[in-house]
Write a structure and sequence with these properties.
Shape: globular
Strand content: 5-15%
GO molecular function: iron ion binding; L-ascorbic acid binding; procollagen-proline 3-dioxygenase activity
InterPro entries: Leprecan_dom, Oxoglu/Fe-dep_dioxygenase_dom, P3H, Pro_4_hyd_alph, Pro_4_hyd_alph_FE2OG_OXY, TPR-like_helical_dom_sf
EC number: 1.14.11.7
Cofactor: Fe cation; L-ascorbate
Distance between the termini: 115 Å
Helix content: 55-70%
Strand order of the largest sheet: 5-6-17-13-20-9-8-7
Structural class: alpha+beta
Radius of gyration: 34 Å
Family: Belongs to the leprecan family.
Low-confidence stretches: 1-32, 379-542, 547-556, 569-639, 641-650
Number of strands: 20
Number of helices: 31
Bound molecules: 2-oxoglutaric acid, fe (ii) ion
Largest sheet: 8 strands, antiparallel
């Protein structure tokens, strides 16, 4: 019996196991194609995501990209852990009499750290590090994965996720127009408020910082303390991480001696670490001035408000350590000392801040020495340092800076910042010296400073909310950028030296004093802050409320934007006819590859409040187009276009002749052809330019985008269509624009045998001419040597495909519209800036080439040179929506024209029939 029971039990166990295994295996097969081998790098996952993206497999795109992001974070956390852990191994060497022996011991310590790192990394990361490319890392630092993710989410109808991903990407790349449009689109159609969106890359220290800020705004001081204390904790963590990630590779690109190469790597590492403050202080693409120090400012005020004077004094002292020149805080400190009798309190600087400060000082000295005597910061180091060294997402401004293309403006800014920091640094040193000096006197002794009366105190309270004070504080903060006082500038080094020596002596003295104080010590957690004797006659004010209100600023900006939007809408309402057009435009510009269905859905959705009793939506839409069509004075030309309907989306390439072959132009990805435009078409575009072009248009309004000696007037396709819609130019002007652009695009696609669709990325009609008074013997270029999708590295003869270059612009072409000017040749160039081969512009000539090709435009010395410049992309994500929409609009108009003609014909026939009938009678 028992045997039977046991057998039954065994069978039932096996059955359960079997069922379980079958289910499990079924599950396996469903999921198997989406499984990741442990140890796969973020680089590899990213590639898989991109492959899936290209195959339009959105589910897999999401799966791989999400995992790539996860893996990227994991990798960096583990790397940081190892570096921080091994850094802490002792390097202290007991000096030997023989210098060489001391050195050996020192390096033995370094070897220990290296061994520690190797073991740690291999335990935590396997061999990942060897398989990660710099290019991929760069993409993660600029949050590129989110731009793919948002689209994949959108395709999978995960609209909220799409919105968050777009929002996240934009926080790091706030100037990205495509993504702005997408976010607008998601907002308009799926409608999650921006406030509810989550920045998927939000840093905790920034989150708490912003929350602390909000608490401050509503005078919730307990909240301020909670959030800012938390923010500081995370700040220090992120700061350590950022520094640790600086300890990566270094490519000196030179043959160096032993000491030179060790020192070069070390200097590079210090230089990278110097940037960590700025990186951490970057929120939503903007650097918050005085970021670290302001934590202590807020805290000081909140503690004071809650009557925790000791803590307030500590924070004030810490703030002064970081910003010694800050008058507001000096006044606050004086107030604590005078009005509250600080002798009751011991002034203590927060230890973490003090340690940070001390290290910054020393690092700066060491780096200054390196810079002065042997280490030259090469331009590219900036790139590598900031791209790969920083733990936090890169601020697009920094990216721009490091890439060198916009180096002119941006590096200027940087230098200014550095100067500020330098000043700050010098004053800090001086001031700290004097603070310590003054601190010797007994704080209990009556000071010369005036006591604060109750009335005065009341006044000050009122000042709290006063704009004047707010500006004052804000202004100061803008002056000093970072808190570390480090900088790249070594010009003043010699002048500083003497001063530094003096300061050092003073500091030594101070240290002795500090030591004495510490012995009395009443708090292990804090460094003692030597007490200050205030010997000037200033009034001392109650602590001032920090008015660096980020939220307030954000709200103000938002209100301004809203107002602007309202105004715009108001304008268009007045302008009844244009309203629908504008609406139509707006609605279309927010779309990315919008299918007709979605298009109609949105149209309905947006229409409802606007056309409550009007004709049906579809009719209304067509009515608008009829209006548009009727508004074109040159009716004949529209009809002509209509009769050539087939040319618009699929233009014929007949009549195009080779001007220069790829071989003649010395590059397989280059060609020049004639006959792309007829003389009449060239003339049309030139007239469009003369009638509608705007100074600097197409160059983000920059009037001298390439040389100050030339004037650039341009117009984009969208403006051209708008000009026609506004009845300022005939409709066939933009129609010609689009037609020629499309014909050029189709040619490039076919000539270079591209197997996937080539999209417009940007199109721009532009005329350039010499400004009156420009030197006759100019040697500059009308457009300096450049490549359209990468950044030239003249030292290494390569072109880096990285931001801020338009890396997605795979192919370019320029259609020339005229000749008869002097200069202005198009030129293919060598890396050494010499000319390779030139093409002379003339009406209908098109030069086409790959985005990596180096090229330039010779100066236009006399007359005006007009051209239609076009950039194309293979990535649909970057396609030019304006072109796509304008094309659609033109197509619709053409259809209408045909329909109207058909109707007209019908009417005529009916009339004829009637007339015929009548005659018969
Ligand atoms: O106008 C030309 O010939 C070339 C212009 C160009 O290279 C550019 O705008 O990127
Ligand atoms: Fe170009």
């Amino acid at each position: 019996m028992r045997l039977i029971i046991i057998m039954a039990q065994t069978i039932s166990i096996f059955t359960t196991l079997f069922v379980f295994l079958v289910t499990y295996c079924l599950f396996c097969t469903v999921r198997s194609h989406l499984q990741i081998v442990p140890g796969t790098t973020y680089d590899e996952l990213y590639s898989s995501a991109i492959d899936s993206y290209n195959e339009e497999n959105w589910e897999n795109t999401i799966f791989f990209m999400e995992n790539a992001i996860r893996e990227f974070k994991f990798y960096r956390v583990k790397l940081t852990e190892c570096r921080v852990h091994c850094q802490n191994l002792s390097l202290i060497v007991v000096p030997e009499e023989d210098e060489a022996l001391s050195e050996l011991k020192f390096f033995q310590g370094i070897f220990k750290k290296a061994a520690c790192l190797k073991t740690c990394k291999s335990a935590k990361l396997g061999n990942r590090a060897e398989r990660i490319s710099e290019e991929a890392t760069m993409k993660f630092l600029t949050l590129m994965p989110y731009s793919y993710l948002q689209f994949a989410y959108y395709k999978q109808k995960k609209y909220y996720d799409a919105q968050c991903a777009a929002y996240t990407y934009l926080r790091a790349n706030p100037d990205d127009e495509v993504m702005k449009n997408n976010l607008d689109y998601y907002y308009n159609v799926y409608g999650a408020e921006n406030e509810t969106l989550v920045d998927l890359e939000e840093r905790l220290h920034q989150k708490y910082y912003l929350e602390g800020n909000s608490a401050h705004e509503v005078s919730n001081y307990t909240g301020v303390i909670e959030h800012f204390e938390e923010a500081l904790k995370f700040y220090w963590w992120a700061y350590d991480e950022c520094r640790a990630l600086c300890e990566g590779q270094y490519d000196s690109r030179e043959f160096l001696d032993l000491y030179e190469s060790i020192a070069g790597h070390y200097a590079y590492n210090l230089h990278c670490k110097e940037h960590c403050n700025t990186t951490l202080a970057t929120i939503g693409g903007e650097v918050i001035p005085n970021y670290l120090a302001s934590h202590y400012h807020y805290l000081q005020y909140a503690y004071y408000k809650l009557g925790k004077i000791q803590e307030a004094v500590d924070c004030a002292a810490t703030y002064i350590l970081l910003k010694p020149d800050d008058e507001v805080m000096r006044n606050n400190m004086a107030f604590y000392e005078e009005a509250l009798g600080v002798s009751k309190y011991k002034i203590r600087i927060r230890p973490r801040a003090q340690a940070y400060w001390d290290r910054c000082q020393l690092e700066k000295e060491v780096l200054d020495f390196a810079k002065k005597y042997f280490w030259e910061e090469i331009e590219e180091d900036k790139v590598v340092l900031q791209d790969y060294g920083d733990a936090e997402p890169i601020d697009p401004n920094e990216v721009r800076l490091k890439d060198g293309v916009v180096l002119d403006d941006k590096s200027g800014d940087e230098e200014d910042d550095d100067d500020d920091e330098e000043e700050d640094m010098m004053s800090k040193r001086g001031d700290m010296g004097s603070v310590f000096e003054l601190g010797q006197d007994d704080m209990g002794v009556e000071n010369q400073g005036k006591d604060l009366t109750v009335e005065e105190s009341g006044n000050i309270e009122n000042n709290d909310e006063d704009d004047g004070i707010m500006d004052d504080v804000g202004g100061k903060e803008e002056e000093g950028d970072n808190d570390d006082g480090n900088d790249d500038d070594d010009d003043d080094y010699e002048e500083e030296e003497e001063e530094e020596e003096k300061d050092e002596e003073e500091e030594e003295k101070d240290e002795e004093e500090e030591d004495e104080e510490e012995e009395e010590g009443d708090g292990e957690d804090f460094y003692d802050y030597p007490e200050e004797d205030l010997d000037d006659d200033d009034d001392y004010f109650e602590p001032e409320r920090p008015e660096i209100s980020l939220k307030m600023e954000a709200r103000r900006k938002k209100m301004e934007e809203e107002k602007k939007r309202e105004n715009d809408e108001g304008d268009s309402k007045e302008d009844g006819d244009d309203e629908n057009l504008k609406f139509y435009e707006k609605f279309k510009t927010t779309s990315e590859m919008v299918k007709e269905e979605e298009f109609q859905k949105r149209l309905r959705k947006k229409d409802e409040p606007r056309f409550p009793r009007g004709p049906s939506k579809k009719e209304k839409y067509e009515e608008d187009l009829v209006k548009l069509y009727n508004s074109a004075p040159n009716f004949d030309m529209v009809k002509k276009m209509a009769s050539e309907t087939s040319r618009v989306p699929y233009p014929s390439l007949a009549g195009i002749e080779l001007h220069r072959s790829p071989q003649q132009l010395m590059g397989l990805n280059r060609v020049a052809v004639d006959g792309m435009a007829s003389p009449q078409e060239c003339d049309t575009l030139i007239r469009l330019l003369h009638e509608e072009a705007i100074y600097g248009d197409g160059y983000e309004g920059r009037t001298d985008p390439h040389t100050p000696h030339e004037k650039y007037e341009g117009i984009t396709v969208k403006d051209a269509v708008e000009a026609a819609a506004g009845n300022r130019v005939p409709l066939y002007y933009p129609a010609t624009f689009i037609y020629l652009a499309e014909r050029s695009r189709a040619f490039v696609q076919r000539f270079f045998g591209l197997s996937t669709h080539l999209y417009f990325s940007y199109t721009h009609l532009v005329c350039r001419e010499t400004k009156p008074g420009a030197p006759l013997n100019r040697t500059d270029f009308s457009h300096p040597i450049h490549a359209d999708n990468c950044i030239i590295d003249h030292k290494r003869n390569i072109c880096h495909k990285m931001l801020p270059a338009f890396t997605w612009r795979d192919w370019s072409s320029v259609l020339y519209l005229n000749d008869g000017f002097e200069g202005g040749n198009f030129m293919f160039a060598n890396f050494d800036n010499t000319s390779q081969v030139e093409v002379e512009p003339t009406c209908g000539r098109l030069v086409a080439f790959a985005g990596e090709e180096l090229h330039a435009v010779r100066p236009v010395l006399e007359g005006q040179r007009c051209a239609l410049a076009m950039w194309y992309t293979l990535d649909p994500l970057y396609q030019e929506l304006d072109m796509f929409q304008s094309l659609e609009k033109i197509e619709s108009i053409l259809k209408l024209v045909q329909r109207k003609e058909a109707e007209q014909k019908l009417e005529e026939q009916e009339l004829q029939q009637q007339e015929g009938g009548h005659l018969e009678l």
